[in-house]
Specification:
Elements lengths: L8 H52 L3 E5 L16 E6 L8 E6 L6 E6 L9 E3 L5 E3 L12 E6 L8 E5 L5 E3 L23
């Protein structure tokens, strides 16, 4: 009788059981890693857009604005929702004559809350002066230079994993270093826990 080489049924069952255990452990961690990476990339896109608009205002010695935009060509009229994307453009009027750059909207399931610290309403267009200072338009109300603008970006996991970004009146942008916490402006340490993403 001739013996055939191969795996026995117990060996195959052992390999399948080990593979199933590894999948149960690895898949949730991989999903969490992908969400964290997407959240970080999206936050970096917004910070880049804010820095880009400020740099262009200083470089060109003119006013540059950043506003919510669904089509990448004009500001969403009366909108303070940045979920559809945003554009940087020369001047303050919409539709802009010159769009400098456009960014896509948030990934599915992501939310962003915006507010001016001294005003409770959401933020529409943000204007950078040639000096680099900022003004945030909250639907007809231009905030003073003593106000900061806050952006809280969350993925489907909620505020526990959110990223807090603050645009200071000087035009400088700060980002929280600990997921789920606000930017800490009092020295070293972490800020307060984020409580909302909507």
């Amino acid at each position: 009788m001739r013996w055939q080489r191969g795996f026995t049924l117990p060996e195959l069952m052992t390999v399948i059981a080990v593979a199933a255990i590894l999948m149960v452990v690895a898949v949730p961690n991989l999903l969490s890693f992908v969400r964290s990476d997407t959240l970080s990339t999206t936050a970096n896109n917004l910070v880049f857009a804010l820095n880009y608009a400020r740099n262009e205002a200083v470089k060109r010695d003119t006013v540059v604005s950043l506003c919510p935009s669904a089509d990448g060509a004009s500001c969403q009229t009366g909108s303070t929702s940045w979920a559809s994307g945003w554009i940087a453009f020369l001047g303050t009027t919409s539709p802009p004559a010159t769009v400098l750059q456009a960014w896509p909207g948030l990934p599915g399931g992501f939310t962003m809350v915006t507010k001016v610290f001294t005003v409770t309403s959401s933020v529409g267009p943000i204007t950078f002066q040639p000096s680099g200072l900022t003004y945030a338009n909250t639907g007809g109300l231009q905030s003073s230079v003593s106000s900061a603008v806050e952006f809280i970006l969350c993925d489907p996991r909620g505020a526990k994993y959110g990223v807090d970004m603050e645009l200071l009146p000087t035009g400088r942008t700060e980002t929280s270093t600990t997921p789920g916490y606000s930017v800490y402006t009092g020295g070293t340490g972490t800020g307060t826990p984020l409580t909302t993403c909507s």
